[in-house]
């Protein structure tokens, strides 16, 4: 999909500023421009079709997690960059759609020929449970509880 010109201009400006400051700009152009202007819960897989496997992984990761992958998160995928495009993309989407972040945020994939994301009542309820237990105010409340109760909660939820 052709990117709107403004996103390319923004990318070039930010990349030049980062280079001038001596700091690396981790985003590759496609991962920034393919995800720009999208609804936060919707990932349009067709926007990534023209990318090579390395750019595809980063763009898909940014589309779901809204951040760049850490070095440790991307390292296992680097050995698969030489795979067939369809096999690689199927693997990427199966892993990303199986994440708790995907469930918590109630993400949706459009134009996705690679896998069928988990759906249904059980999946959405698990997403809600993970979303509730990951809230910061629950953590601060939990830290105020006595140590034996904290241990019990850790056994149940972690």
Task: Describe, in plain words, how this protein is organized in 3D.
The protein has 158 residues and is mainly α. It folds into two domains: 5-118, no CATH class; 120-158. Helices cover 59% and strands 4% of the residues. It contains nine helices and two strands. The protein has helices at 5-21, 29-33, 53-65, 71-78, 85-97, 100-104, 121-133, 136-143, 147-157, and strands at 42-44, 108-110. A two-stranded parallel ribbon has the order 1-2. The radius of gyration is 19 Å and the shape is globular.
**Order of helix and strand elements from N to C terminus:** HHEHHHHEHHH
User: How is the biggest beta sheet arranged?
Assistant: 2 strands, parallel
* Total count of strands: 2
What is the tally of helical segments? 9
SS-derived structural category: mainly alpha
Low-confidence stretches: none
Taking all Cα atoms into account, the compactness measure Rg is: 19 Å
> Helicity, in percent?
55-70%
Strand content: under 5%
Structural shape? globular
- Terminal-residue CA separation: 41 Å
Mean pLDDT: 82
When the domains are counted, the total is 2
Q: Numbering strands along the chain, what is their spatial order in the largest sheet?
A: 1-2
């Amino acid at each position: 999909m052709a990117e709107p010109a403004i996103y390319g201009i923004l990318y070039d400006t930010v990349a030049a500023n980062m280079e001038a400051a001596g700091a690396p700009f981790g985003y590759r152009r496609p991962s920034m421009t393919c995800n720009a202007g999208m609804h936060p819960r919707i990932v349009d897989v067709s926007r990534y079709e023209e990318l090579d496997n390395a750019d595809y992984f980063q763009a898909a990761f940014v589309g779901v997690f809204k951040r760049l992958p850490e070095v440790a998160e991307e390292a296992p995928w680097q050995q698969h960059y030489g795979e067939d495009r369809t096999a690689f993309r199927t693997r990427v989407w199966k892993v990303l759609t199986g994440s708790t972040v995907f469930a918590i945020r109630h993400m949706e994939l459009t134009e996705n020929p690679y896998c069928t994301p988990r759906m249904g009542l059980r999946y959405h309820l698990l997403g809600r449970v993970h979303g509730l237990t990951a809230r910061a105010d629950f953590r601060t409340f939990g830290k105020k509880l006595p140590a034996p109760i904290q241990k019990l909660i850790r056994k149940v939820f972690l």
